[in-house]
Amino acid sequence: METKRFQKKDDGFVCLNCGREVPALVKTSRNHCPYCLWSLHVDVMPGDRANECRGMMEPISVITDPRKGFIIIHKCLKCGEIHRNRAALDGNVPDDPDLLIKLTVNPLG
Question: What are the tens digits of pLDDT across the range 62-105?
Fold first, then answer.
C-alpha cells in the first residue's frame, strides 16, 4: 500500500524558540511558529511527525514563488538538513509578514 506524501496532523504547540502558544492552522498542518518562523525537525514526509532528529530549525531565508507565495527556508541546527516550507498567510494566526519580508532573498542582488 502506498504511503501518502502529506499527512494532516495539525495540533497546537508552544514554540520552543519564542515560547508563544501556537494554535492549530485548521486548513493544513502547521509546521512552524507564525510569530518567529522557527520550526522543529519533526517530519520525514510533510505532516507525518516521524523524524527522530527533533532539532530546532532556524528560518534562514525566504524566497518567493509566483504560485506558492512565500517559501521559508529552514536549516536544522542539530543535523544541518534544509527544508522548504510554505508560509501560512491566511488562517486564524497568519505568519508575521514583517519577518517574511525581512528574510526574503532578492535573487537579483
Answer: 999 989 899 999 999 999 999 999 998 877 789 999 999 999 97
Cell of 74: 529552514
Residue 92 DSSP code? S
CB 56 within 8 A of CB 73: no
Long-range pairs, 48-57, Cβ under 8 A, ≥24: 48/7, 48/9, 49/9, 53/78, 53/79, 53/81, 54/78, 55/79, 56/16, 56/17, 57/32, 57/83
Q: DSSP string covering 11-46, please?
A: --EE-TTT--EE---SSS---S-TTT--EE---SST
Distance between the two ends of the chain, CA-based, in angstroms? 47
